[in-house]
Amino acid sequence: MSPRLVPVGSTPEYDDEAAVVLSEGWPEFIFHDAGVSPYVERRAEYFADLDFYLLDGDRLVGCWAVPVGWDGTVYDLPSGYTDALARSVEGHEAGVVPDTLVVMAAAIRSGERGRGLAGIALTGLRSAAAEAGLARVIAPVRPTLKSSYPLTPIETFMTWTRPDGAPLDPWVRTHVRLGATVLAAAPRSQTITGSVADWESWTGLALPSSGRYVIPGGLSTLEIDRETDTGTYHEPNIWMRHV
After folding, report:
1. Statement: the pTM of the whole predicted model exceeds 0.85
2. Pairing status of strand 230-241 against strand 59-68
3. Low-confidence residues of the chain: pLDDT under 70
4. What is the largest CA-CA distance in the chain?
5. Distance between CA 172 and CA 161 in Å, rounded?
6. Which helix or strand (DSSP H or E) is residue 55 part of?
7. Fold of 4-188
């Protein structure tokens, strides 16, 4: 059977596996964005028809999106992932008619990468956007290779290419191969804060003094302030447009 997108609500038997897939796809600290938590439950309620599982036999990919109002300009882009989520929920409650689908995630188990499943998921979400009457599709893309270059500004990293001219980053390259174009950098797509103990738990590192730290899975550096017992991390993404 060919890989297919199915609504999350119609296949609850995959929920536990999906939770595992999601936890494998990102570093632990990414799940502690306090700006996301106020919107999670309402997002799931309002936009359940934009939550999908991609099934390939018994293999699963989780993907989800939200609708927003966007005028098509770089100036009007959400500042990133968290802002897109907030704009979708608050816009829905304010009666804003959305015209754009924001692809928020396509989570794939590490052993299943490189098989084209992400491309199928992204193509399926573009079709879902068309069916919902949403004229545009954008995504705050998390460049997977950026964690190897955490000291490099995202504005610089997004311009790097291979000798053949394709983007250096493999996840950005997947989007481009599907017809997407780079719109803009999102240097603070998410902001994650926590105590020093929180960050030591999330990263597995000792953080004995104030300063900047390179952390496992981080796309930028972590700033630790021991005097205030605070760690702050800004997650950079790249805005890309599919349609």
Report:
1. yes
2. unpaired
3. 1-2, 21-22, 25, 57-61, 107-115
4. 58
5. 10
6. strand 51-56
7. Aminopeptidase (3.40.630)
For residues 48 and 8, the answer to whether their CB atoms sit within 8 Å is: yes
The b-or-e profile of 190-224 (16+ CB within 10 A means b, else e) is bebbbebebbbebbeeebeeeeebebeebbbbbeb
Structure tokens at 47: 């936009």
What are the tens digits of pLDDT across the range 170-191? 999 999 999 999 999 999 999 9
What pLDDT is stored for residue 12 in this prediction?
Answer: 82
d(CA 227, CA 116): 47
Q: Report the alpha-carbon distance of residue 162 to residue 59 in Å, rounded.
A: 31
Residue 56's nearest CA partner among 140, 99, 149, 118 is: 118
Comparing CA positions, the residue from 190, 196, 188, 191 lying closest to residue 224 is: 196
Q: Is the separation of the CB atoms in 189 and 236 below 8 Å?
A: yes
The sign one gets for the Cα dihedral 168, 154, 30, 225 is positive
The residue with tokens 């879902």 is: 128
